[in-house]
C-alpha cells in the first residue's frame, strides 16, 4: 500500500488539529522513508520482479528493522517518546503535546497494519523469528486498489467534515484538487514501471517529501478557530 496510508493521516488530523497535515503525512510513511534509506546502505533488501503479484512487482524479502511488528512498534514508540518528552523548540501546551505524541505514534504504527492487509506473507513478527504474516490482497488488483481507495476516501471524508475549508479559493478547492491527484495515483500505481531498486528508492523519497509539502501547504490554507482543548481545528 502506498497512497492509502495517507487516508490515516487525513483521519488523524481530527485528533491533532493544530499539527500540520504534512507532519502526519510523514508519520504514516515513516517506516517506508527509513526503508528506502536502508536499502542503498545494504541493510534491508528488496527485488523488483514484474508480475510478482497482480498489484505490485515488489519482492520484499528482507526488511526486519522497518516492517516487522516489533520494528514498527519500535518506530512508533520512539516517535511518541520524542514528541512527548523532547521540547524540540515547541511551545505546545502539555495536554496537547500528550495528545499529538499519541496521535503521531498511532500514525507511524498504522503503516504496519495497512501493509498487513495488502502484503503477501513477508512481514515478520519479530526479527530473527521466521514467522511472517500478510493477507496478500496485492494478488488482486481490483481488491487491493479498492481497499486502498476506501481507506483514502474515508480518511479524506473525516478530514473534510472536521477541518473547515475557509473562504479563500485555495482553502476551498486546493485540498480537493490534491485529493483528486492522490486518487488518480492510487489507480495508476499498480501499472507503473520501475527500472531498478535504487531509482525506486530515490523516487519514493522524493515523492514522500513532495506529498508532505503539498499536504502542509493546502492544509495551511484552510481557516478555522481553535477551541480551548485544541481538539477541533487549526488557525491557518
Give keywords.
single chain; 236 residues; mainly alpha; two-stranded antiparallel ribbon; two-stranded antiparallel sheet; globular; disordered C terminus
Explained architecture:
This protein has 236 residues and is mainly alpha-helical. It has one domain (5-220). It has nine helices and four strands; from the N terminus they run αααββαααββααα. It has a two-stranded antiparallel sheet with strand order 1-2. Helix 1 packs antiparallel against helix 6 (94-118), helix 2 runs antiparallel to helix 9 (197-220) and helix 7 runs antiparallel to helix 8 (169-188). The chain is globular. 37% of the residues are buried. The model is unreliable at 224-236 (pLDDT under 50).
- Biggest β-sheet, characterized? 2 strands, antiparallel
Strand order of the largest sheet: 1-2
Q: What gross morphology would you assign?
A: globular
Classification by helices and strands: mainly alpha
Series of secondary-structure elements, N-terminal to C-terminal: HHHEEHHHEEHHH
Q: What percent of residues adopt helix (DSSP H or I)?
A: 55-70%
User: In angstroms, what is the radius of gyration?
Assistant: 18 Å
Strand percentage lies at 5-15%
Question: What is the mean predicted local confidence, pLDDT?
Answer: 91
Question: What order do the helices and strands come in, and which of them pair?
Answer:
Layout: H1 5-12, H2 21-28, H3 30-38, E1 45-48, E2 58-62, H4 64-67, H5 69-85, H6 94-118, E3 123-126, E4 129-133, H7 141-162, H8 169-188, H9 197-220
Antiparallel strand pairs: 1-2, 3-4
Amino acid at each position: 500500500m502506498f497512497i492509502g496510508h495517507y487516508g490515516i493521516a487525513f483521519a488523524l488530523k481530527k485528533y491533532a488539529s493544530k499539527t500540520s497535515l504534512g507532519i502526519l503525512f510523514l508519520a504514516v510513511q515513516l517506516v517506508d522513508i527509513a526503508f528506502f534509506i536502508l536499502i542503498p546502505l545494504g541493510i534491508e533488501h528488496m527485488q523488483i520482479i514484474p508480475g510478482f503479484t497482480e498489484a505490485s512487482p515488489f519482492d520484499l524479502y528482507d526488511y526486519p528493522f522497518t516492517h516487522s511488528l516489533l520494528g514498527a512498534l519500535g518506530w512508533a514508540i520512539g516517535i511518541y517518546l520524542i514528541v512527548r518528552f523532547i521540547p524540540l523548540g515547541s511551545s505546545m501546551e502539555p495536554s496537547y503535546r500528550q495528545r499529538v505524541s499519541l496521535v503521531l505514534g498511532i500514525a507511524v504504527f498504522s503503516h504496519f497494519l495497512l501493509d498487513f492487509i495488502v502484503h503477501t506473507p513477508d512481514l515478520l513478527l519479530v526479527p530473527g523469528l521466521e514467522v511472517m504474516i500478510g493477507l496478500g490482497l496485492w494478488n488482486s488488483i481490483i481488491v487491493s486498489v479498492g481497499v486502498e481507495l476506501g481507506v483514502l476516501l474515508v480518511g479524506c471524508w473525516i478530514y473534510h467534515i472536521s477541518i473547515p475549508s475557509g473562504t479563500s479559493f485555495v482553502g476551498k478547492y486546493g485540498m480537493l484538487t490534491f485529493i483528486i491527484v492522490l486518487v488518480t495515483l492510487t489507480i495508476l500505481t499498480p501499472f507503473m514501471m520501475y527500472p531498478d531498486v535504487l531509482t525506486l528508492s530515490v523516487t519514493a523519497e522524493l515523492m514522500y517529501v513532495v506529498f508532505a509539502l503539498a499536504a502542509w501547504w493546502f492544509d495551511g490554507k484552510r481557516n478555522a478557530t481553535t477551541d480551548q482543548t485544541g481538539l477541533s481545528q487549526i488557525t491557518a
